[in-house]
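#structure-requests
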Amino acid sequence: MSSRRSRISDEEINDLISKLQALLPESRRRTTSRASAAKLLKEMCGYIKSLHREVDDLSEQLGGLMATMEADSPQAEIIRSILGS
């Protein structure tokens, strides 16, 4: 097995950067238009961190909601079916 890494062309890097930029919401994309790859990666990291915070917040809210429901209530059954648990 070769330990040599294959090189990524500038064109492939530009394509990957464009794909990353397309993943950002429109509101964030405007601030990074024509931005350097480093700025885009920094913005993408910030966006991912904000998504993690949002998931944590929603999980906490859902946990609180589930704690107030009876385990066999129709609402709890619906939530469990949505979550696949």
